[in-house]
Write a structure and sequence with these properties.
The protein is an alpha/beta fold. The protein contains 9 helices and 8 strands.
Length: 231
């Protein structure tokens, strides 16, 4: 069932009057689109966009990719997950978060009772940076219209931002993930965001899993999810 209509492609969603990216714990709906699309138009536009991303030559990363990774999941998601950029396995398969970090992400979602099909998973960059280096500003600049439009079509009640690059771009801040994670914040466009550590970081620093579990419990409570029993 559709919660809200989607935005017309390319159209800027009006800024929520109370927005501005300041941390807030106030639940509020996602910003309203100026013009509604039907679910079929939304689905069609997402399909078209995936083809546009596959053909994109907007930055140097296009030259090195095997596949662009557009994103996948529910088109009426409870939660949109925004990661950093595809890694080697994602570049090979064309699907987001299918490597080791992706397997951990799938477990993290499962811990709060969400399957991958319940959410929508995508990245800040749609193509793999060589050697998984950090995204460069010009790459983020070239790719961000895609993410902005994806969000406008999906209208998520909440975004889970994984790691610094995704969080900084969504919240339009230079602050790092250490100071931003664990608190509900709002993008300048009015989307609610919970920043947390990237699962790739958790693979290197398993002791940070405790913090992420705390963040995920806040997400579950916010979405009204009942936590599955842990065995
Ligand atoms: N890391 C990301 O940020 N995104 C992916 O899709 C895979 C790994």
């Amino acid at each position: 069932m559709d919660r809200q209509p989607a935005a017309v492609p390319g159209e800027q969603v009006a800024r929520a009057a109370r927005g501005g990216g300041a941390p807030t714990a106030q639940p509020a709906p996602a910003p309203q689109p100026a013009v509604a699309l039907t679910p079929a138009q939304r689905d069609e536009r997402l399909k078209e966009m995936a083809a546009e991303v596959a053909a994109c030559t907007g930055c140097v990363l296009a030259a090195g990719r095997t596949s662009a990774v557009f994103g996948e999941g529910s088109h009426t998601p409870k939660l949109v997950i925004v990661g950093e950029a595809p890694g080697a396995e994602e570049d090979r398969s064309g699907r987001p978060f299918v490597g080791a970090a992706g397997q951990l992400l799938t477990k993290m979602l499962g811990a709060i009772g969400l399957a991958r099909e319940d959410v929508y998973i995508c990245n800040l960059l749609k193509c793999r940076p060589p050697g998984n280096r950090n995204p460069r500003p010009e790459e983020v600049g070239a790719c961000k219209p895609f993410l902005r439009e994806q969000l406008g079509l999906l209208r998520p009640p909440l975004i889970l931002a994984l790691g610094s690059p995704a969080t900084r771009e969504l919240l339009q801040t230079r602050r790092g993930i250490m100071s931003l994670r664990g608190r509900f914040s709002r993008t300048p466009d009015g989307y609610r965001v919970m920043p947390t550590f990237h699962p790739a970081y958790l693979l290197r620093r398993p002791e940070a899993k405790r913090d992420v579990w705390g963040d995920l419990k806040k997400v579950a409570a916010d979405l009204g999810l009942e936590l599955p029993k842990r065995n």
